[in-house]
Automatic annotation (TrEMBL), chain A:
NCBIfam families: narI (TIGR00351)
Start and end residues of each NarG-like domain: 21-240
Pfam families named in the record: Nitrate_red_gam (PF02665)
Subcellular location: Cell membrane
Name of the gene encoding the protein in the UniProt record: narI
Highest taxon, organism lineage: Bacteria
Keyword annotations from UniProtKB, A to Z: Cell membrane, Electron transport, Heme, Iron, Membrane, Metal-binding, Nitrate assimilation, Oxidoreductase, Transmembrane, Transmembrane helix, Transport
Membrane topology: Multi-pass membrane protein
Transmembrane domains' residue ranges: 23-42, 63-83, 103-127, 147-171, 191-215
Protein name: Respiratory nitrate reductase subunit gamma
From TrEMBL, chain B:
Keywords in alphabetical order: 4Fe-4S, Electron transport, Iron, Iron-sulfur, Metal-binding, Repeat, Transport
Ranges that cross the membrane: none
Source organism of this protein record: Actinoallomurus spadix
The protein's name: Nitrate reductase subunit beta
Cofactor(s) named in the record: [3Fe-4S] cluster; [4Fe-4S] cluster
Pfam families in UniProt: Fer4_11, Nitr_red_bet_C
UniProt-listed PANTHER family: NITRATE REDUCTASE BETA SUBUNIT, RESPIRATORY NITRATE REDUCTASE 1 BETA CHAIN
Region (Disordered): 534-574
Keyword Mitochondrion in annotation: no
Listed CDD domains: NarH_beta-like
Designated gene of the protein: narH
């Protein structure tokens, strides 16, 4: 169907695709994407007021000053790593002259360090949430669920990496997981490439799908409005009030709504 | 030249009695909700004193406002855009709740619920942050009237700049009150610090507002404002600030703090200014030149060239006329008695102050001399360096000359008017000594001492084309008939047809209903419309949600908990 067709997946070992596999690696991803996208649209339309980081720095600053940057910088590097590993096909890096070994060593080293930073930061943040009274009482059930899922995803991801690379002989997910990931976005999902993947990787992927499902309904929405526009906008924003708040000229029943 | 209009305020500090009425009424109007218990859009500080939040004036510590970089360019003191984004995950310069104060309530219930016992039950203070019992040890005006100043006095940031001698005896020397609201600056560093661009300055009247739908809780504005007049609502995770009571000002009535001020010391009016000059003025190299630089940004509303430019730039005719009658223009420019608060922060603040002469008068009187005699007063202003230096640190970045000049003008008015009031021949030499005429002094006296309502507030309504609505408000026709649009938001063609009533009008009716009826407000009048401005965040106001199926409707007897049951405390949003 697409030009990127079969050749992309040529390296994937063939496996028997069961119904479960189809459900998990074909149906589920689309459900998650739909929920993620529509969830954000819905939240943006109906709950702009709730769209915030809900910063708790007013209550406590000492632990946050350490934990939050550690976690955030960690997770942003991890995020970049995932984009690099999942989105960029192996052929491209090879073509660019990066050998499999080089790529692997850098990825594992950087990934592990960033992952550990994330985990340490997250541990500090959770410890802070639990032990600092005002922060704890400002923690909603929603937050707790989010933290549980987030921790699960990170722990599974880290342990998959550690188990496969440091303990095992190394595992090249770019031959299996990545093609599957891309195939989902090419609307040509290949459940087969996921079928034979080690269990920890599969669990990590599933937990991530769970995280993305709840994402739009948690405080994590703040990531989508990361303020990059700040770098280019003029310092002082001027706005006219008649398009925003306060009084409007009367609208008659026969006028079309504006 | 690009002309803009700015709604501005001047406060005459001589008249402030420190009663905090302004703070309380403001709180009732704007911040009596959960999440902003510790927030005072209007607060009154005793000077000398630490202020609220504690020592907010120490910009070496808090890094609010603007500063000049090595190349003389204006930059945010807390760091530019890249730096802001790199430190966004934990703001390094955010005041903690302890720097404001931990808000509390009392366990009033024990007073009524306690069983019969030997000792009178007491209501213990309980933290509104953690919910635990607490020991109250600081508040928004803990050092009110210099209370405890022997312990905390040396922590006054402004005093640090004044001479060593003052530090030891300042509280015997003088004291005055400084009411503060947001300055609605011409060059607001809060807006410049906001990563999501949610804080904006209105083009029509210069009021600085936070768009609650665009604020994402990055909490950089709190650091950015050197006056610490943006606050973080810890329940909603959004920034909030003084609104200059825009719903009131838009219909031509003064802010709540001004309207209720016991000393009647607040003036509200327009200033026309040249936006193109703001950046240059704010970049003036010398701190002490900033006062004059800011005055240079203002435009004379009587100048035909300015009028033509203002009309070209869309300032309505009635606004230009209002700017001509503006008490602010008179106080800042004609009489030159108003000064900006901390011009050295370079935000070009627009709430100015007439410094108090009373510290000087008090000393003269206490030493047994005639405190109305011009010679005595002038001599005292020269001799009493302490109050003058202190005021200069507040209002002119340390330059005593403008403060001196203002105090002399106030002293001249005092003694010149005494002669007039006693029926004696006025001494024209007195005004001459401060470069004024007797007539000018008399007019200034009219504005400052008599301070009639119409002279204090010259507030043009928001839109000329809405002027007929104001008449409706003033004459109470058509808006208040049962079922009229002002009452319920129902026009002839169903809900909200006919347009929304101004918020001020809606509030007025709401409050009147509350005060005059036996049934809870909104029971039968609201019919499904909710005014969230009157909602304190607790319970579910009727009409917020449609009635449950089968139920005849919410409310007493329905499914809603009573408004103050606490059972329906608002959960923070995810
Ligand atoms: C570049 C984008 C991001 C920015 C600018 C950002 C910024 C922030 C800020 C300002 C806070 C509030 C900290 C505080 O004062 O309490 C916060 C909290 C948080 N962020 Fe982010 N964030 C970003 C991306 C992410 C991502 C990708 C995740 C997770 C997948 C994440 C997870 C969290 C969590 C869990 C908290 C709550 C921390 C706590 O208070 O316990 N953020 N973020
Ligand atoms: S005083 Fe008001 S307008 Fe000026 S920087 Fe502070 S919050 Fe912004
Ligand atoms: S109400 Fe007026 S007199 Fe009273 S504290 Fe406020 S500004 Fe001062």
């Amino acid at each position: 169907m697409t030009a990127t067709g079969p050749s992309m997946y040529s390296g994937a070992p063939a496996h028997q695709v069961t119904t479960t596999d189809t459900l998990l690696w074909v149906a589920l991803p689309y459900v998650v994407i739909a929920v993620f996208v529509l969830g954000h649209v819905w939240r943006y339309r109906y709950d702009k007021f709730g769209w915030t980081t809900r910063s708790s720095q007013l209550y406590e600053s000492r632990l946050l000053r350490v934990g939050s940057p550690l976690f955030h910088f960690g997770i942003l590097v991890v995020l970049l790593g995932h984009i690099g590993g999942l989105v960029v096909p192996k052929r491209w890096t090879t073509a660019a002259g990066v050998s499999e070994h080089m790529y692997h060593v850098t990825a594992v080293a950087l990934g592990t360090v960033a992952g550990l930073c994330t985990l340490a930061g997250l541990a500090i943040l959770i410890y802070r949430r639990r032990t600092v009274g005002p922060v704890f009482s400002a923690t909603t059930r929603n937050d707790k669920l989010m933290y549980a899922v987030l921790t699960l995803v990170i722990l599974l991801g880290l342990s998959a990496t550690v188990a496969a690379n440091l303990l095992g002989g190394g595992y090249d997910y770019r031959e299996t997981v990545s093609p599957w990931f891309r195939s989902v976005f090419f609307l040509h999902p290949r459940a087969g490439s996921m079928a034979g993947v080690p269990i920890l990787f599969r669990l990590h992927a599933l937990s991530a799908l769970l995280l993305f499902t709840i994402w739009p309904f948690t405080r994590l929405v703040h990531m989508l409005t990361a303020p990059v526009g700040y770098l280019t906008r003029p310092y002082i924003v001027y706005r006219s009030h008649d398009t925003t708040l306060g009084r409007r000229p009367p609208r008659r029943g026969w006028d079309l709504p504006r | 030249m690009r002309v803009m209009a700015q709604m501005a305020m001047v406060m005459n500090l001589d008249k402030c009695i420190g009663c905090h009425t302004c703070s309380v009424t403001c709180k009732q109007a704007w911040t009596n909700r959960s999440g902003v218990e510790y927030v005072w859009f209007n607060n009154v500080e005793t000077r000398p004193g630490q202020g609220y939040p504690r020592q907010y004036e120490d910009q070496e510590r808090w890094r609010g406002g603007w500063t000049l970089n090595k190349r003389g360019r204006l930059t945010l003191k807390a760091g530019g855009r890249a730096r802001k984004l790199l430190t966004i995950f934990a703001n390094p310069k955010l005041p903690s709740i302890g720097d404001y104060y931990e808000p509390w309530t009392y366990d009033y219930e024990t007073l009524t619920d306690a069983p019969l016992q030997e000792h009178t039950p007491v209501a213990r203070p309980r933290s509104l942050i953690s919910g635990k019992y607490m020991k109250v040890s600081w508040s928004a005006n803990w050092d009110d009237d210099l209370g405890g100043s022997a312990e905390t006095g040396e922590r006054d940031v402004v005093l640090r700049e004044v001479s060593e001698k003052v530090k030891l005896e300042f509280d015997q020397t003088f004291m005055f009150y400084l009411p503060r609201i947001c300055e609605h600056c011409l060059n607001p560093s809060c807006a410049a610090s906001c990563p999501s661009g949610a804080i904006y300055k209105r083009t029509e009247d210069g009021i600085v507002l936070v768009d609650q739908d665009r604020c994402r809780g990055w909490r950089m504005c709190v650091t950015g404002c050197p006056y610490k007049k943006v606050y973080f609502n810890h329940r909603t995770g959004k920034a909030e600030k003084c609104t200059f009571c825009f719903p009131r000002v838009e219909v031509g009535i003064p802010t709540v703090c001004s309207e209720t001020c016991v000393g009647r010391l607040r003036y509200i009016g327009l200033m026309l200014y040249d936006v193109d000059k703001v950046l240059d003025a704010a970049s003036t190299p010398d701190d002490t030149d900033l006062y004059e630089a800011q005055r240079g940004v203002f435009l004379d509303p009587h100048d035909p060239e300015v009028i033509a430019a203002a009309e070209r730039d869309g300032v309505p005719r009635d606004w230009i006329e209002a700017a001509q009658r503006s008490p602010i223009w008179a106080l800042i420019n004609t009489y030159k008695v108003a000064l900006p608060l901390h011009p050295e922060y370079r935000t070009m603040p627009m709430v100015w102050y007439i410094p108090p002469l009373s510290p000087v008068v008090d000393v003269v009187r206490d030493t047994g001399h005639d405190a109305e005699n011009a010679g005595n007063l002038f001599a005292a202003i020269d001799a009493l360096r302490i109050p003058v230096d202190y005021l200069a640190q507040l209002f002119t970045a340390g330059d005593p000359a403008p403060v001196d000049a203002v105090l002399r003008r106030l002293a001249a008015m005092r003694s010149y008017m005494r002669d007039l009031n006693l029926g004696r021949d006025p001494d024209e030499a007195i005004p001459a000594r401060v470069g004024m005429t007797g007539e000018q002094i008399y007019e200034m006296y009219h504005l400052l001492a008599l301070a009639k309502y119409d002279a204090r507030y010259v507030i043009p309504a928001a839109h000329a084309e809405d002027a007929h609505k104001l008449e409706e408000l003033a004459t109470e026709c058509s808006l208040d008939y049962e079922g009229g649009p002002g009452m319920t938001g129902w026009g002839p063609f169903g809900e909200t047809s006919g347009g929304a009533a101004p918020i001020a009008v809606e509030n007025f009716h709401m409050l009147r209903q509350r005060q005059t009826s036996d049934v809870p407000a909104g029971r039968e009048h609201l019919r499904g419309r909710v005014n969230l401005l009157n909602w304190d965040g607790k319970g579910l106001p009727e009409g917020l949600f449609p009635p449950r199926g089968g139920d005849e409707g919410p409310g007493p007897g329905g499914t809603n908990p009573p408004a103050d049951s606490g059972a329906a405390e608002t959960e923070p949003k995810p």
